[in-house]
Specification:
The chain is α/β, with parallel strands linked by helices. It has helices at residues 16-31, 46-58, 65-72, 74-89, 121-128, 154-166, 199-207, 215-224, 277-287, 303-307, 324-338, 365-375, 399-409; strands at 3-8, 35-40, 94-97, 104-106, 115-118, 132-136, 139-141, 147-149, 170-175, 196-198, 228-232, 240-243, 256-260, 263-272, 292-299, 312-320, 342-346, 349-355, 382-386, 389-395. The chain has two domains: 3-176, Acetylglutamate kinase-like (Carbamate kinase), CATH 3.40.1160; 247-418, VC0802-like (2-Layer Sandwich).
Length: 418
């Protein structure tokens, strides 16, 4: 008898009829002899509704973070209770669990808490009594006993953490799509469902704009070697397995293409090109907890600076577009402090990336990517790479064209890209 975690997102539990459909999925696994823990999200739209109520109650965008968590965590409690009722009505033993009852303990960063520990003993004891555990996702409790929430996609994180804590054979993530695709099917009609992908590849795709899985959930799965199965709530078909590297195909150089539209470009023009200056720039940015992505330094075209005997450079970096309004005043002040000639901002950009474990052993992948973009007349503004990823910053008007060109250029719609 294997232990199994099944996680259902908001669209899967959007109403009572869909909750009954979820219960049928759960019963199928119980009838197969598995011990099942179910982790649920709030019903579709409920979290947004609760957030809006918090804003209305506070008469503004600022409200007490602890009370905010107490309010928004209630959406998952409703779903967990309703599913437990349906399961019991089907003759199955079940009980709902709130985060603090398990307990799932976190730090005290309200609305973005990180899991510190989870004790699976009570859930396992329930299995011994033939009981299905229905766990409210997205929530935990801090050391002071206050309710905390885990941020966007937190129910995925809860599910994988529960799976690790109880030693589950797998964690199934049920959603409204039937798996992970080589790229967004809405952008590229030739996109193909991937049968198996590694944790590393999934992490890169998730960080680059793929919305199927939350990044932290994949990190936990990789750390504790929990196989993930992304599949549809509305079909019994197999989805995509996210597993360790030993299952990867070495002859596959590119697995998927992703586009991240939440990028903004910052250019510091005419920065003094001498040791310690760039370190000072990004040290100051880090102290403000501003995350940057791509970084490029190039010779400055400021002829006046060169004539004065000063060597200057242009420093380009990217950050999230949603962070830019908050940090722009600081960047303007920083530019003045370091004597930059000018600061330029560009939000009309997109980061297009290819991901594949096989890049480690395949030469020429970057050159092929650049050639494909050049053939379409797409200029590359910045480049960043890792062992299994190559990202290019391009004008946002080319986003869909770049995705389609790279997807078809690496023949991802036909199967393995070599």
């Amino acid at each position: 008898m294997a232990r199994l975690v099944m996680k259902f997102g908001g669209t899967s539990v959007a109403n009572v009829d869909r909750i009954r459909n979820v219960a049928r999925h759960v019963k199928r696994e119980v009838d197969a002899g598995h011990s099942v823990a179910v982790v649920v999200s709030a019903m579709s739209g409920k979290t947004n509704e609760l957030v809006a109520l918090c804003r209305e109650a506070a008469a503004g965008p600022v409200y007490d973070p602890a009370e905010y968590d107490a309010v928004v965590a209630s959406g998952e409690l409703v779903t967990a209770g309703l599913l437990a009722i349906v399961l019991k009505d089907m003759g199955l033993a079940a009980r709902s669990w709130q985060g603090w009852q398990i307990p799932l303990t976190t730090d005290d960063a309200h609305s973005a808490a990180r899991i510190e520990n989870i004790d699976g003993a009570k859930i396992v004891d329930g299995f011994k009594r033939g009981e299905i555990a229905v766990v409210a996702g997205f929530q935990g409790v801090d050391e002071d006993g206050d309710i905390t929430t885990l941020g966007r996609g937190g129910s995925d994180t809860s599910a994988v953490a529960v799976a690790a804590a109880i030693g589950a054979a797998a964690c199934e993530i049920f959603t409204d799509v039937d798996g992970v695709y080589t790229t967004d099917p809405g952008v590229c009609p030739s996109a193909r469902k991937i049968d198996r992908i590694t944790y590393e590849e999934m992490l890169e795709l998730a960080s680059l704009g793929a919305k199927v899985l939350q990044i932290r959930s994949v990190e936990i799965a990789m750390k504790y070697n929990v196989p993930l199965h992304v599949r549809s709530t509305f079909s019994d078909a197999q989805g995509t397995w996210v597993t360790g590297e030993e299952s990867a195909l070495e002859d596959v150089s590119v697995t998927g293409v992703a586009a991240d539209k939440n990028e903004a470009r910052v250019l510091l023009v005419g920065v003094l090109d001498q040791p310690g200056v760039v370190a000072g720039i990004f040290g100051a940015i880090a102290e403000k907890n501003i995350s940057v992505d791509m970084i490029i330094q190039s010779p400055s075209a400021a002829s006046s600076a060169q004539a004065a005997g000063e060597v200057r450079a242009d420093v380009t970096f990217t950050l999230t577009k949603t962070d830019l309004p908050r940090v722009r005043p600081f960047i303007d002040e920083l530019a003045l402090r370091i004597g930059a000639r000018e600061v330029r901002y560009d939000e009309d950009v997109v980061k297009v990336s290819i991901v594949g474990l096989g890049m480690r052993s395949h030469a020429g992948v970057a050159a092929r990517m650049f050639a494909i973009l050049a053939k379409e007349g797409i200029n590359i503004q910045a480049i960043s790479t890792s062992e299994i990823k190559i990202s290019c910053l391009v004008a946002s008007k080319y986003a869909e064209l770049a995705v389609r060109a790279l997807h078809d250029g690496f023949e991802l719609g036909k199967g393995a890209a070599t």
